[in-house]
Amino acid sequence: MVEQLSIGGVDIPLGSQMTLELPLPNLYTHTRVALPIRVMRGSRNGARLLISAALHGDEINGVEIIRRLLAMPQIRRLHGTLIAVPVVNVYGFLSHSRYLPDRRDLNRSFPGSESGSLTARLARLFLDEVVAKATHGIDLHTGALHRANLPHIRAHLADPQVEPLARAFGAPVILDSPPPEGSLRQAAMARQLPYLLYEGGEALRFDELAIRAGVRGILSVMRALEMLPPTRERSPHPDPVIARSSGWVRAPQSGILRAALPLGARVEKDAPLAVISDPFGERETPVLARHAGIVLGRTHLPLVNEGEALFHVARFQAPGAVEERLESYQDELADMRELGDPFNPAFSPETL
Fold first, then answer.
1. Are 251 and 306 a contacting pair, CB within 8 Å?
2. Distance of alpha carbon 95 from alpha carbon 93, whole angstroms
3. 3-state secondary structure of 40
4. Main-chain dihedrals φ then ψ at residue 282, nearest 5 degrees
5. How far is CA 142 from the centre of its chain?
6. E strands of the chain, at which residues?
7. How high is the pLDDT of residue 350?
8. How do residues 316-327 score in pLDDT, each as one tens digit?
9. Please, which residues bridge with residue 52 across strands?
10. Could you give the CA distance from residue 105 to residue 299 in angstroms, rounded to a whole number?
């Protein structure tokens, strides 16, 4: 039986490719705004995988991940359907902003409302017209402004549909976390649609390692869903290390942050992560780890206020094993030329 697919009232048959634009509320200049969607359907039925990015308008790594993914030669052998939405929060993307013009967070506004705020209306449209048409999903994110995240997956592993996809992605770290209230993951879970969240890099910046990890991870999930033929070139990804909890280390005082540990660094409880000083360096206060773990996220801005979140540390039973896994993972990605820019033949790992 042929599965029918319609988005925005447009029928998309098997074996076809189509770019759609769902109309959104105009700007106050009456300039038209639309939600761009690329749909690729194989000649046979199969999973319908939705890849979404830029729910936060300043998180742009996912846009590049989707661009490279769609250019990969493997996609030509697609079974099932790939739905790619590189810019969900078009309004924030235009203004380099995390939020929409009404200052609301789209990823805390699901399931939304047809008669609510601008953010609520976009959330409802995206959920009903796009998410509802998928069988699986991956949402691409980065750290917030001036914050970077180590490439990792966030997933609710208690969901039996989610765990195998999280492992298939192949990221070295999985943060086991229930979906926050109002998030896209929570709305998808309410519809029994398994959805992963990929984190990597920093807002308004392209991070080559995070981009390559995202492309590779999505291709791995597609193979697990039998949307692509299995690869014969590489051995299976090593099992990821799962963090069951994490926490932020905050600034004990205002000042200038320096000598900060990098992403992926192993830390011990009460060990110094950085130092905060006054402009003269006369009063220095160490920033101490509250528990042992791995630095999963960190600020890149050296000017900090008291109480500001500085380091996101994930807890592991064996942090040393995670550190080794991260080193091999980064080396592997740096050597994978096929995950570089397919439109730039001169690209090589040496340009990283």
1. yes
2. 5
3. strand
4. -85, -30
5. 6
6. 6-7, 10-11, 17-24, 33-41, 48-53, 81-85, 136-141, 147-155, 173-176, 195-202, 241-243, 245-250, 255-258, 266-267, 272-277, 284-288, 293-299, 303-304, 309-315
7. 34
8. 766 666 767 777
9. 85, 139
10. 20
Quote the DSSP letter at residue 44. Answer: S
CA distance 273 to 254: 16
Residue pair 142/193 in contact by the 8 Å Cβ criterion: no
List residues bridging with 17 in a β-sheet: 40
Q: Is the pTM of this model over 0.85?
A: yes
- Comparing CA positions, the residue from 209, 166, 205, 212 lying closest to residue 185 is 166
DSSP string computed for 73-86: GGGGG--SEEEEES
CB 333 within 8 A of CB 213: yes
Residues 19 and 39: their CA atoms lie apart, in Å, by 6
Residue 342 to residues 69, 188, 339, Cα–Cα distance (Å): 9, 32, 8
Is 241 exposed, middle or buried (CB count within 10 Å of its CB: 0-12, 13-18, 19+)?
buried
Six token digits for residue 345: 């033949």
DSSP 107: G
CB burial of residue 105 (10 Å; 0-12, 13-18, 19+): middle
Q: How far is CA 43 from CA 79, 109, 220, 317, in A?
A: 7, 36, 20, 46
DSSP string for residues in 5-35: -EETTEE--TT-EEEEEEEEPPPTT---EEE
Amino acid at 198: Y
Pick the closest to residue 144 from 117, 105, 180 (CA basis).
105
Q: For 300-321, how does the pLDDT look when each residue is reduced to its tens digit (9 = 90+)?
A: 999 999 999 999 999 976 666 6
* Nearest one of 136, 79, 102 to 27, comparing CA atoms: 102
